[in-house]
Description:
Blueprint: H1 2-15, E1 17-20, H2 22-38, E2 43-51, E3 57-60, E4 63-67, E5 72-80, E6 83-90, E7 98-99, H3 104-111, H4 113-118, E8 142-150, E9 153-160, H5 175-179, H6 182-197
Parallel strand pairs: 1-4
Antiparallel strand pairs: 2-5, 2-8, 3-4, 5-6, 6-7, 8-9
Amino acid sequence: xxxxxxxxxxxxxxxxxxxxxxxxxxxxxQEFTQKLGERNITxxxxxxxxxxxxxxxxxxxxxxxxxxxxxxxxYVVWKEEDGAFxxxxxxxxxxxxxxxxxxKLYDFFIxxxxxxxxxxxxxxxxxxxxxxxxxxxxxxxCFRSFQFTEGETTYSxxxxxxxxSNDSDGENLNxxxxxxxxxxxxxxxxxxxxxxxxxxxxxxx
Length: 205
């Protein structure tokens, strides 16, 4: 067993090892969106997806990269003259931008910007909660954090995936309300796009 651990350590050392946290992801995202602004692209949004404590490790060319603490994925969506694009960023690098087959992720943002700014996801409200301590599932530690930018205006929207679910022992009385919100619909649309587009996203390494 000791030999296996030692060999693993030698392999990782020979490849090079890096750990990057949320701050690193935020810096990469800011650098990229700043470049969008330099190209006069002023309407775009980002969504950060993460589950607290989830760690990912990747073997890249000549190095191993792992998240320092939680693994974060950020997706940036914007539109240029020839169509809408998406870019992925995580704890280890940026990915090459991918042109989308249609503009729906961007157009939904523009068409629903007032609702995206004003609507708020309500907390999970159990139909069986009596006010007394009871055995219930803990909220899952997975989150969505959106940031929308329109010219000089930027606004954010974040929520816990538990609040849009029916995963606890009691039915969530806010389930239907939350799942009708534009930000939740937009996130579901992103899931559909990633199902067919994520394999096309290659790291910039």
